[in-house]
Amino acid sequence: MTEGAPSPAPHLSPDDDRGDTDLGLRAVRHWVQARSTAPMLVLACPEHPDPADSARRCLPPAEWETAVVVRMPACLGTLPRAAAPEVLLDGAAGVTYLLDGCAEPDSTATSLADVLPLLASPDARTGVPALRVVASVPEAFDGDEPTPSLHVLDARSMPVPRRALLGAEAPAPEPTPTEDDAASTDHARLVTALAALAADPARGVPDVGVATGRPGPGLLLRAHGCTACGVCVRVCGEGALTLRVEDGASFLEQRVDRCSGSGECLDACPVDALSTRRRARWAEHLREGVLPLAVVDTHPCGRCGAPTPTHDDLCTVCAFRRANPFGSHLPPGAEALVRRARGI
Ligand code: SF4
């Protein structure tokens, strides 16, 4: 099937079309899961003038037979960074992002910059690079292979599996670890999908050597002078920090794999206890690990019962309230929590 002269949808800005993108990605994932053979997915923006031609020019002839081009409903820059590892988990042989027809190729390429080196090496299962990002395509073919016809599908109307059309119940695809993670953060989805790929030693992606040496997005923290107030725990949108109270002590801990490197906790700490040791490496993101940051001897606050350093009667909030009974200022750390609640 060749492309039937679709009328390209207008390019939408990344802020307008996350919903379209999510629906399109879900449809593509379900379609890949229902396939008995592994397709080489080539993703293109809705405004790409001729993705089939670009795919023919940039893919090696050996991949033409399994290549399927999909027009996504919005700019590829709106796809979550987890999109490529998720469709690989679903069974795709590889994923190619066609950016030669993209209105914003630089921002899309930048969003994939840290994922691409991890997935650029061949997947041992399929022998093709797990992820390619193509910014420009060659003018002409090398070699004299006959020009193939490539399938071009629209992510808004992916084909229904043949079994379903005939009324037979399709076998339920194996759920992937990221299938129910639509509500997760972009970082959490990415790390979950990459870690699930890495758990299959036969695949060879993500590239272990790259993951071991390459800095990831997260930060390894240290905490000096922590008062166990818990502001950083509540302000972290990734759930990377926990405060555990046990036997008269509070333990502040960091889940390294969950840290996206936003630095919100550093800004929020009312006593500037947190600082950065170094960037986490991708290999540290891909395995669960807990980093102990601080142990504070605590007892319950005399007013609210919150863990409070033993040398203080009241926690910082209650101490602030007592000192400022009619004050209009927010207690230490509260500003960051208000900003987070308002999504600022
Ligand atoms: S915000 Fe600062 S003082 Fe409070 S628990 Fe976190 S590191 Fe400790």
Explain what the structure shows:
- By secondary structure, this protein is of the alpha/beta class.
- The protein has two domains: 18-209, no CATH class; 218-342, no CATH class.
- It contains 13 helices and eleven strands.
- It has helices at 18-34, 51-58, 83-90, 105-111, 116-119, 162-165, 186-198, 208-213, 231-235, 264-268, 282-285, 316-323, 334-342; strands spanning 40-44, 67-71, 94-98, 131-134, 151-154, 215-223, 241-246, 249-255, 274-281, 290-300, 307-309.
- Strands 4-3-1-2-5 form a five-stranded parallel beta sheet, with helices on both faces. A four-stranded antiparallel beta sheet has the order 7-8-10-11. A two-stranded antiparallel sheet has the order 6-9.
- Helix 2 (51-58) links the parallel strand 1 and strand 2.
- The chain is elongated.
- The two termini are 47 Å apart.
- Keywords: 4Fe-4S, Iron, Iron-sulfur, Metal-binding.
- One of its GO terms (molecular function) is 4 iron, 4 sulfur cluster binding.
- Pfam families: Fer4_7 (PF12838).
- This is 4Fe-4S ferredoxin-type domain-containing protein.
- Residues 13-22 have a biased composition (Basic and acidic residues).
| Mean residue pLDDT | 86
Largest sheet: 5 strands, parallel
Total DSSP E strands: 11
Shape category: elongated
Q: What integer value in Å does the Rg equal? A: 25 Å
Into which percentage range does the β-strand content fall? Answer: 15-25%
Ligands bound, unique: iron/sulfur cluster
How are strands sequenced across the largest beta sheet?
A: 4-3-1-2-5
Share of helix, binned: 25-40%
Structural class: alpha/beta
> How many H/I helices?
13
Uncertain residue segments: 1-15
Secondary-structure element series:
HEHEHEHHEEHHHEHEEHEHEEHH
Number of domains: 2
Amino-to-carboxy terminus distance: 47 Å
